[in-house]
Write a structure and sequence with these properties.
The chain is an alpha+beta fold. Helix content is 21%, strand content 34%. Helix 1 packs antiparallel against helix 2. This is DUF190 domain-containing protein.
């Protein structure tokens, strides 16, 4: 498991749920590339409402059947590793928003092969 503590960089990629890369959801492609790059972890969060550069509001409300809700992919790792990953995003994200934030990792734990949480 990757060790991560202290200063880090949070990468947030905001795209649409219907955005694709070679017939695959774009958010999924970003997560799989982050995994292949050995980054510490990635999570995808589906938004319930939002708008971006197009100024078109997308919502999950019942009366509005949006098929392109906002999706946020969050990745946290060291600054060097995140910045090394950015060229891949240049290739993938043609519409959306990419944000970098300084952050501090207070706790980063995973599970061992048995499903039990690793303890230090």
């Amino acid at each position: 498991m990757t060790r991560l503590a202290g200063r880090a960089l949070r990468l947030t990629v905001l795209v649409g749920e219907s955005d694709t890369w070679h017939h695959r959801p774009l958010y999924s492609e970003i997560v799989h590339r982050a995994h292949a790059a050995g980054l510490a972890g990635a999570s995808v969060f589906r938004g319930i409402e939002g708008f971006g550069g197009s100024s078109l509001v997308h919502t999950a409300r019942l009366l509005s059947l949006s098929e392109d809700l906002p999706v946020a992919v969050l990745i946290v790792d060291t600054e060097d590793r995140i910045r090394a990953f950015l060229p891949q995003l240049d290739e993938l994200v043609t519409e959306g928003l990419v944000i970098l934030d300084d952050c501090e990792v207070v706790r980063y734990t995973g599970r061992d092969g048995s499903g039990a949480v690793e303890r230090e």
